[in-house]
Records
---
Amino acid sequence: MRRRAMAMAALAASWGTIPLIVRGVDLAAEQLAAARLWLGALSVLGVLAIRGELRIRRGDPIRRVVLLGILLAVHWAAFFWSIKTTTVAVALVLVYLAPIAMATLAGPVLGEPLHPRSIIALITALAGVVLVARPGAGVTVEGVVAGLIAAVTFAALVLIGKPASQRLGGLKLAGMQMTVAALALTPWAIQAAPRLGEFWWQLGILGVALTGFGLFVYWALVSTLPVATVAILSYMEPASAVVWAAIFLGERGDVLTWLGVALVLLAGLGSTARQPVPTVG
C-alpha cells in the first residue's frame, strides 16, 4: 500500500500546480472548468476507443456514473463560485473540510474503520491547511454556502465513486464521469471555444495531463486505498500549491505558511503506515 499512497501524494502534489496554470488563462472560471473537462474526457475516451473498451456493458453502474458526473460538475462550479464570492483562503479551508467527512463516513458507508492514527493525521493535515490559507476578512454568506457545497460534493464523489472504480476500473470510470460532467457544462464550453487556441498549451496540460490522465490515476488508486488515506493525502494539493508558488512565482510565504506545509507532509507520512484494505462489493 505504501507505493500506492506515495503515488496518490504525488498526484495531489501535481494538482497543486493548477493555480499556476489558471493564472495564465484569461477565461471565466466556468469556461475554464468546461474546457478542462471536455479535453480530459476526449483524451480518455480516445484511449478507451483504442483499447476497445468504449462500449457500455450490461451490469455497468450507469446511474452511479451519471451521479458522479453531475457531482463533479457541481463540485467544480461551487468551488469556483466560492473563490469568486469570498477569498481563496476561505474557499480552500471550507472545501478541505471534505476529507474529514469522507474519512468519518467511510465506516458506515463502505465498512472501512477509521483508525486512531488516521484521526490524528487528519486533524494535523487540516491544521496545516488552515495555517497555509489562514482565512480572515472577506467572508460572505454566499461564498461560505458555495464552499460547503463544494466540500459535500467532494466527499460524496469519493464515497460513491470508490465502488464504481472497483467495478469499472479507473480509466473507464474517469472517461464516463468526465463525459457526463463535460456535457453538463457544455454551454460554458461553447462560450470558451473561440479563445481556446490562445491558451492551447496551458489547456493541454490542464485538460489532458492533469484532468484526463490525473483523474484516471486517481480512481485507480482510490479503488485500492482506504478512504482515510485518500482523505489525508488530499491535503497535499493545497499544501504543494504553496511550494510551487514559491518556486515559480517567487511567493515565499512566511513561517506559519511553511509550518502548515510541514504539518501536511507529516500527516501524509503518517497515512502511509500499512493498514488492511477492505474490499467493497
---
Amino acid sequence: MINTVELERDLGYTFRDRQLLYLALTHPSLAHEAGVGHQQQHNQRLEFLGDAVLQLVLTAELYHRFPEQGEGPLTQARAQLVNRASLAGQGGELKLGQYLILSRGEETTGGRQRHSTLADAFEAIVGAIYLDAGYDRTRELVLHLFASSFGELAELPNLVNPKGELQELLQTSSPEPPRYGLISVSGPDHNRQFESVVLHDGNELGRGRGRSKKLAESAAASEALRRLKEAATPPVAPMP
C-alpha cells in the first residue's frame, strides 16, 4: 500500500478512514484493466462528490467576498477557480501524481502527470475529506488551498477593481493619488487578517480587512467609494 504520510501533511489533514484516501487516488484505468466481472472500485464517484463540494464552498466564498458583484462576474470568477487547469495545478502542488494508483498502461503513457488525471484526483480527495470530516472542515481546507487564487482574483478585470475606480474618481478633483497604509496584521499564520487604510490629501477615506494586504486595500477602497458616493448623493426631499 502507498505511503500517504507526506500527502496528508501537505494537505493539512489526516484521514480517519485511510481507505477513502486510497480510493480517491485510484484511477479508473484499474477497473478497465481488471476487465468485465471484476468489481474494482475507483475515484470517479468521489470526483463527482468533490466537484459539488468545491462548487458550493467557492461559490459561497465569492458571494460573501464580493457583495457588489452580480451573477455574471461571480460565475466567471468561479469558473477560473475550478477550471481543469486550476484544479490540475492544485493536484500538482500536492504532488498527487506520485501517489496515484494506476494501471500499467496508464503508467507507461504518462498518466501520472496528465492534467485531467490530476484534476480528477484533486476533486476526488475533496470528496473523500468531505465524507471523512464533514462540510466545515472541508471548507476550511479548501479555502486554505485556494488562498493564493483568491488573492489573484481580487485584481481580475472581470471583478470590481475598487482601487482603480477610486483613483479615477479622485483624479477628477486632484492630481494626488490615494495612498494605502497597513494598520495591523492579526491571527495565526494559516489565517492572517490584514487591516489597511486609504488616505487622500491627508484625510482618511476608508478602512478594510482581508486575508491578504491586497484584499485589505481593496476593501478599504470599496469603503471609501461607498462613503464618497453617499456624500455626493443629495438627500431625498420629504413628501409634502
